[in-house]
Write a structure and sequence with these properties.
Blueprint lengths: L5 H5 L5 H10 L13 E9 L4 E2 L2 E9 L4 H18 L5 E6 L10 E7 L11 H9 L3 H12 E10 L10 E2 L6
Helix pairs in contact: 3-4, 3-5
Amino acid sequence: MGPLPWGAMDERPADKAHDDDWINNVVKYMTADSDQSYWKFNNQLSNFLKDFKVNKLLVDMYDVKRFKDEGVMAAVEKVAKVMKEKFPDMTFGIYTNEMPSTKDGRDLSMVFFFDDMAWLGEDPKFVQAYEEMYGQDSWKDFMKEWGETTDGKQSELWIFDPELSGLGADVKAMERQ
């Protein structure tokens, strides 16, 4: 899933306000039996073309089979291409777990940002869009490829609560490196 950005973590400036916020607003919600993850945003595969306010999120997390990182990312590239070209107004992010576990099933995540719960019931006709881009019956090939690289999925619905966030809901679109 790519090289780990460990140096960037060491270069983070010491910031007492950040550390205090972390201790007072994050650590208190962690429990001894919970896991914490370090998710890395993938700018090239994500679609953040406009400013928006975080409201509701559909978080789909996938379990990547051992030694199949390269294959799953090739499949995700195809999905991202369809999403960006056929659904350009849909805001989504692709994230990889930089400290994955072979047992928890949270290696790759696709996060959709939306405002109305009715969005969950809409049919975007993704399969049709995929086959328009990659050819008739290409979806069957994709599903075979996906099945060979993943072991399952877990979905969560998140609702932004400003009292639990150190940052506001505003997300500004910008060029990212």
